[in-house]
Amino acid sequence: IYLSIEDVEPAIPRITPASLKNIKETQHIKHQWDHLGEATSRCINEVLKDANIADEYSMMMAWEHYLNNHLSLPFDAEITESQENVSLHQGEKVKIHRIIVTDDHYGVIMNLRQSNNSFDFPLCSIRVADETSNNYKIVEAYNAWFSNR
After folding, report:
1. Chain segment 61-77, per-residue pLDDT in tens
2. DSSP letters of 27-73?
3. Which band of pLDDT confidence, cut at 50, 70 and 90, is reported for residue 129?
4. What is the rounded CA–CA span in Å between residue 63 and residue 20?
5. Interior CA angle at 116 toward 106 and 88, to 5°?
6. From CA 56, how far away is CA 104, in angstroms rounded?
7. pLDDT for 136 beyond 90
8. Residue 109 confidence (pLDDT) above 90
9. 53 pLDDT more than 90
10. Does residue 98 contact residue 120 with C-beta atoms inside 8 Å?
11. Neighbour order of strands in the sheet with 93-103
């Protein structure tokens, strides 16, 4: 079949550049955590579903709200990374008691205890001891999000 230019009618574009940009952004938001695994991605998306993803503080507050409502406190944990000015070291066992605050640099800060000492420590430097608990899955998802944000 041969068509001449007179036989062809111009088509109306179905997607505008603006709508294409919107589609790309929507798909990026929906799938940006997929590389972390299905369960982790699902948890992160659940936490951030109502947060403004363009605003890191909004996302951190969404995490704080989710953790307050879903973590079973207290729980046993282990330090995964030492912090300056705190006498806790990697591998030490602690008990997590409550959420203190959300900091824009360190993320969610937890109150933990070791022996008779109390410390405020970033959740991103803590691993839940019981790997079968719901706390473990939630904290691992938070840590994956925090280190990949």
Report:
1. 999 999 999 999 999 99
2. HHHHHTTGGG-HHHHHHHHHHHTTS-TT-HHHHHHHHHHHHHHH--S
3. very high
4. 30
5. 40
6. 8
7. yes
8. yes
9. no
10. no
11. 117-122, 107-114, 93-103, 75-79, 126-128
